[in-house]
Write a structure and sequence with these properties.
Radius of gyration of chain B: 18 Å
Helix content of chain A: 40-55%
Order of helices and strands of chain B: EEEHEEHEHHHEHEHEEH
CATH superfamily of chain B: P-loop containing nucleotide triphosphate hydrolases
Largest sheet of chain B: 6 strands, mixed
Structural class of chain A: alpha+beta
Number of domains of chain B: 1
Number of helices of chain A: 12
Number of strands of chain B: 10
Oligomer: heterodimer
CATH topology of chain B: Rossmann fold
CATH class of chain B: Alpha Beta
Distance between the termini of chain B: 40 Å
Strand content of chain A: 15-25%
Bound molecules: adenosine-5'-diphosphate, magnesium ion
Order of helices and strands of chain A: HHEEHEEEEHEEHEEEHEEHEHHHHH
CATH architecture of chain B: 3-Layer(aba) Sandwich
Largest sheet of chain A: 10 strands, mixed
Strand order of the largest sheet of chain B: 6-7-8-3-9-10
Helix content of chain B: 25-40%
Structural class of chain B: alpha/beta
Number of strands of chain A: 14
Number of domains of chain A: 2
Largest interface: A-B, 25 and 31 residues
Chain lengths: 383, 239
């Protein structure tokens, strides 16, 4: 019966192809869209994976570059239970690099811009984890003696053709490159890490403020608990967020994106479903006589339903497979030709395939029942 | 032994204002081993009767008994089972499935059954051999002549080893030479395999070889008297 159903699909090729197109478009759309969302998600996860501690920012500042915190909190935070190291940081987005404006009418590349992170290098280098910086691939770490030296992210170095030992002018001050690092994500790799005094000099931070503090804990798994404690004690001025808290901040955005994608998928499901139902229904009408004779030779309703459902299932499977192949291609195209990061997971492929199968089966139900209800005598007489 | 019996079967079709009395009280008995031929003008109700006797359709009134069981008491599933096990159908237009080859078409009625596919396959091959199509087993219907297609249909009707085969104008779409071969085939099956046949036809010659002969007229079935009416028919034909 499988074979019979399978070949039935090839009797009206144009119609089958039209029905397949519906599923293929649906599956391709799902893979294309969801892979973009997943790609984004993964990028965030990589970025967040770089630190496991707690970040202290000015209340409601949202971003380190917008935050300003009184230096006196350094001592206060060190006293809190569970806190191991408090690293003061200055985040700054320089206005000029090598004499050129970073942002202007001719340059709006937000993600390509270099930004500065000044840290207390002594404390920073004592951290267990990598901090913001991942692997140093060339050169060395900077220490508190390395005034005028920076550690530069690989993306920025490639972008500006810089090597260990080359120099770069940031806000008019000349720096030399001590090392180049890889962070595992583009988000951090346009960063220039320097001593906090250098950062003070090129920005308008005086001696009273830092941007934020990065806190390493005795036990990294306690990040939420310690954040809560800090917010409880100093919550009027500063705000502590943990790595896990960060991802919770992003997840509503991701969820919204998912809902949107789901909506588009649902639309394509309806279109595809109607297409398949129509195809199969037409082919049932075409085969009235044949179905009648199947009944005459002793097929019962269940078998007729099965035959039609198999046809629907095959449509779903074939459409699903082709859609997956095209979808992977589409995701690759988005990534390579347009530069949108995508991530095609096995899970997504499986979901897309099941979606196709599901749409196929659902839209087969009505024509299958109709076919089984054909009166065999009428069917045989017709035509 | 009575296989199928009809008692005062009527069939009425209502088409808007008009009612068509396709059958007006037909009583008949089909015995094991019969080779029944039914003739009659078109529109007289032959096909309708055949469908009702073959459990494809239900009478408006009256009763059909298959193996003594009233079919009005059976549900769709049981009727399908009777058609599958006890009855074979052969149609004027063959009604084969174009995408399947001859052997696969023959095996179609075994699809709902469990059991060894290999056994059915062997049986199908033997039946195609019996109807003289051993060499053409793997051809699609479109690659076969009309006579060959009807032979495939006969093999299909026999695959589940039914007790009785209904043939509705089996030679209607065939030239007379091919038609004769098909009839001979059925006659042989009747003699050698003891299959029961009920054949509806326009071909009056068949009455000569029938074990029971009937004529259908305006929904009424009457037995043709052995000597008298046959002669009348054949005389008519030779004029
Ligand atoms: N589904 C139907 N609706 C209405 N009338 C029908 C239907 N089927 C058959 N008939 C009528 O019943 C009569 C008998 O038809 P049928 O059994 O096909 O005759 P035959 O096979 O002898 O040519 C005809 O008058 C035909 O028009
Ligand atoms: Mg007829």
């Amino acid at each position: 019966m499988l074979k019979l159903s399978f070949f039935n699909l090839f009797r009206r090729k144009t119609r089958t192809i039209l029905a397949l197109l519906g599923i293929i478009i649906g599956v391709t759309a799902i893979i294309g869209l969801v892979s973009v969302v997943d790609g984004l998600n993964k990028e965030f996860e990589n970025a967040l994976g770089q630190f496991q501690g707690v970040i202290i920012m000015e209340k409601n500042s949202f971003d380190q570059t917008l935050s300003k915190i009184d230096v006196k909190f350094e001592k206060k935070l060190e006293k809190i239970q569970g806190v191991k190291t408090v690293v003061p940081e200055i985040w700054h987005i320089p206005t000029t690099v090598n004499g050129k404006a970073q942002f202007g009418a001719d340059n709006v590349d937000l993600f390509g811009a270099i930004y500065v992170l000044g840290v207390d290098t002594k404390k920073y280098n004592s951290l267990r984890g990598d901090g913001w910086v991942g692997n140093i691939i060339k050169g060395k770490k900077i220490t508190s003696n390395d005034k005028g030296w920076i550690l530069l992210g690989e993306t920025a170095a490639d972008d500006k053709d810089l090597f260990v030992g080359s120099s770069i002018k940031i806000n008019g001050k000349k720096f030399r490159i001590k090392g180049i690092f890889q962070a595992g994500t583009d988000l951090w790799e346009t960063m220039a890490l320097m001593n906090i005094d250098d950062a003070k000099e090129i920005s308008d931070f005086g001696d009273e403020f830092f941007s934020d503090f990065y806190i390493e804990l005795d036990d990294p798994t306690q990040d939420k608990k310690v954040s809560k404690l800090i917010n409880f004690q100093h919550g009027t001025e500063i705000e502590a967020s943990s790595a896990s808290g960060f991802s919770e901040q992003y997840s509503p955005i991701m969820d919204n994106l998912r809902v949107m994608v789901f909506f588009i998928a649902a639309l394509s499901a309806i279109v595809a479903g109607v297409g398949i139902a129509n195809t199969i229904f037409m082919s049932v009408l075409d085969r009235t006589k044949e179905i009648g004779s199947l009944k005459a030779v002793g097929w019962n309703n269940t078998q007729i339903i099965k035959m039609i459902m198999y046809e629907a299932m095959f449509l779903g499977i074939i459409g699903g497979i082709i859609g997956i192949v095209i979808g992977i291609g589409a995701a690759g195209f988005l990534e390579n030709a347009i530069g949108i990061g995508t991530f095609v997971s096995v899970e997504l492929l499986l979901q897309a395939f099941l979606f196709a199968l599901f749409v196929g089966l659902i839209s087969g139900i009505y024509p299958a029942i109709k076919a089984s209800q054909l009166n065999p005598v009428e069917a045989i007489r017709s035509g | 032994m009575t296989l199928i019996e009809s008692k005062k079967v009527t069939k009425v079709y209502k088409l808007g204002m008009t009612t068509v009395h396709a059958l007006r009280g037909v009583s008949s008995q089909i015995e094991k081993g019969d080779f029944i031929v039914i003739v009659g003008p078109s529109g007289s109700g032959k096909s309708t009767l055949m469908h009702i006797l073959g459990a494809l359709d239900k009478p408006s009134e009256g009763e059909v008994l298959i193996d003594g069981k009233k079919i009005s008491k059976l549900d769709e599933w049981e009727l399908a089972m009777i058609r599958r096990k006890k009855i074979g159908f052969i149609f004027q237009t063959f009604n084969l499935i174009p995408t399947l080859n001859a052997l696969e078409n023959v095996l179609i009625p075994t699809e709902p059954l469990d059991g060894e596919q290999e056994d059915y396959r062997e049986r199908g091959e033997n039946l195609l051999d019996l109807v003289g199509l051993k060499e053409r087993m793997h051809h699609k219907p479109s690659e076969l002549s009309g006579g060959e297609r009807q032979r495939v249909a006969i093999a299909r009707a026999l695959i589940n080893d039914p007790e009785i085969v209904f043939a509705d104008e089996p030679t209607g779409n065939l030239d007379s030479l091919t038609g004769d071969k098909i009839i001979n085939l059925m006659l042989n099956l009747n003699k050698e395999e003891k299959k029961t046949f009920v054949i509806v036809t326009h071909n009056q010659d068949l009455l000569k070889i029938a074990s029971k002969k009937f004529i259908m007229k305006d929904g009424e079935l009457s037995k043709i008297d052995r000597n008298h009416r046959v002669r009348k028919f054949t005389e008519k034909r030779t004029k």
